[in-house]
Design brief:
Elements: E1 6-10, E2 17-25, H1 29-37, E3 47-52, E4 58-67, E5 78-85, H2 87-98, E6 103-105, H3 110-117, H4 123-134, H5 138-148, H6 151-175, H7 183-214, E7 217-223, H8 229-237, E8 255-261, E9 264-270, H9 280-295, E10 298-304, H10 310-321, E11 329-335, H11 337-340, E12 345-349, E13 352-356, H12 365-376, H13 390-406, H14 416-434, H15 440-447
Helix pairs in contact: 4-5, 6-7, 6-14, 7-13, 13-14
This protein binds guanosine-5'-diphosphate.
Amino acid sequence: MSITDTIVAQATPIGRGGISILRISGTETKKLALILLGKLPKPRYANYLSFFDINGKILDKGIALWFPAPNSFTGEDVLELQGHGGLVIVNLLLKCILSQSNVRIAHPGEFCKRAFINNKLDLTQAEAISDLIDAHSEQAAKSAINSLQGNFSTLINKLVKKLINLRIDIESEIDFPNEKTNFLFIKKIAMNYNSILINLDKIYYEANCSSILREEKKIVIIGKPNSGKSTIFNLLIGYNTAIVTDIPGTTRDILREYINIDGIPLCIIDTAGLRKSNNKIEKIGINYALNEIKKANIILLVIDSTTTIFTDSTKMLLTLKKYISKDLSIIIIRNKIDITHETSKIVKLNNYPLIYLSAYTGEGIDLLKNYLKKNINLNNNTENNFLARQRHLEALKKAKNYLIKGKNYIQNIYTYDLLAEELRLVQQELNKITGNFTSDNLLERIFSTFCIGK
Ligand code: GDP
């Protein structure tokens, strides 16, 4: 892949639609504009023009936007063509564009990658664009916008600035040892060091909270056949998608739906009932269910209150524990309380929450929703200052570990070269977040998950 190629991609979804947008970026763009439009449009104005093929025949008419470098999204010459949204028209235009040498279809995220390479965006901002497109909730979208505006980078850059100042003090002490280096100097270093550590912790906490918005949590509903799993699934997602019958063993495929409880994105998964079965298809379904359990964040263990006594619930919990990791949350649902005439409530069973509800009447479902909301969202802010990804959290965690290690060297100036090395590593980790320090591999990994045309 070469950055010198000119790239083109459809920026709108492929298929029939009112408008289709083609985006072209690179050195050949000007030449392409002359071929396709017969002239260079007025920069940064909406120009209503005819779109021609290479023989000068009109293919379509639409809006052309011309952004000469460096004042464009990618920093290169960019042309946007907004034509009619038919597949054939778009393909004819693409064919004409691709017939020129050094022009090719863009890879996923390649426009953003070029914007990053040309210093139009830093890495957190480029990632925020993709997160904004993929946002599952209003909160996630708003937080992504904040990142896109540079809130996250600003926090990191401020921290890096403090770090650089501290490194200057320490390294000048190593280079020009001062006879009179004293207690006050060490005290100042320790104070600035601690302030960086506290700051980093604060950013990590915020990043951790915001990353929850990005990564939807998986809630897997399990239980014996006929306990009411599918009815609860339908109730949570708000419409009927799972088949509800009183014939045990009907759900064999995994059903997956996305819901949003007060802005928190959740993926709800309904599974086949867990029981010993000789039926081949049901057995496959049960295996699928066990696989989903391993990937879950929260398990809803549904128990039929009309047939299950408490010792059964405890037994099921013990069996379940064999399949799950220690820190996985389990919520036990005692369903069908409309039949047993119990009241909806939330209590504890073996330290697990036990919620009494009726999926049939809906009584107690709010208890479940509120419990989910409280236990999934670490902070109840409607939006975060920024949106963090797993890789940001990892970099922050590593940076913190280096800082903690470095703390051992503060009190003794003869170990300041070791301290300086730890601080260099801290800075390297922070620079990975904003992209000031990256490898081609990392960039490839990040941008390949973006959509084409972005
Ligand atoms: P699954 O096999 O665990 O998915 O169970 P279903 O959701 O298919 O429900 C099995 C049967 O129990 C169906 O006839 C449902 O209508 C019924 N059912 C589910 N939840 C309740 C409930 O809370 N109260 C009553 N009375 N019936 C329920």
